Amino acid sequence: MGVMDDHVMHVGHSVTMRSVAEFHASLLSAFDQGRSDIVLDLSDLGELDLSFVQIVEAARKQIVGAGRDIRLLRPAAGPVAALLMRAGFDTDPDAIDFWFHGDLSA
């Protein structure tokens, strides 16, 4: 789908176990709003833990299963990339494609 069909969701500065329920609710709301693809803007995300990654990974399966797409506006960088690397997401080709847009050198 094209840019006009996308729902860009700006993720706040912090998504941790304390705030993941709010992020999850926002993601579900974006999914329920219609048939557009969801694009996550992580540019403000600086504080996160694996609960954020778990919600996004679960949402990927649900959204793709519904015939839609979820993707990142830009490849993961900074604290997001560091967490993903520590968690081993730099070894799975599918994860590399999604989280890093296929390029780990960024």
Task: Provide a short characterization of the protein structure.
By secondary structure, the protein is an alpha/beta fold.
What can you see in these coordinates?
The chain has 106 residues and is of the alpha/beta class. The protein has one domain: 2-Layer Sandwich (Transcription Regulator spoIIAA). Helix content is 43%, strand content 16%. The protein contains 4 helices and 5 strands, in the order E-E-H-E-E-H-E-H-H. The strands form 2 sheets. A 3-stranded parallel sheet has the order 1-3-5. Strands 2-4 form a two-stranded parallel ribbon. It is globular, with a radius of gyration of 13 Å. The relative contact order is 0.16.
Query: How would you characterize the largest beta sheet?
Result: 3 strands, parallel
User: What gross morphology would you assign?
Assistant: globular
Mean pLDDT: 91
CA-based gyration radius? 13 Å
Number of strands: 5
Strand content: 15-25%
The neighbouring-strand order within the major sheet is: 1-3-5
Report the top-level CATH class: Alpha Beta
Number of domains in the coordinates?
A: 1
CATH homologous superfamily placement: STAS domain
Low-pLDDT residue intervals, each spanning 5 or more residues = none
Number of helices: 4
What's the helix-strand series? EEHEEHEHH
CATH level 3 topology: Transcription Regulator spoIIAA
Q: What distance separates the N and C termini?
A: 25 Å
The CATH architecture name reads 2-Layer Sandwich
User: What share of residues is helical?
Assistant: 40-55%
Structural class of the helix and strand makeup? alpha/beta
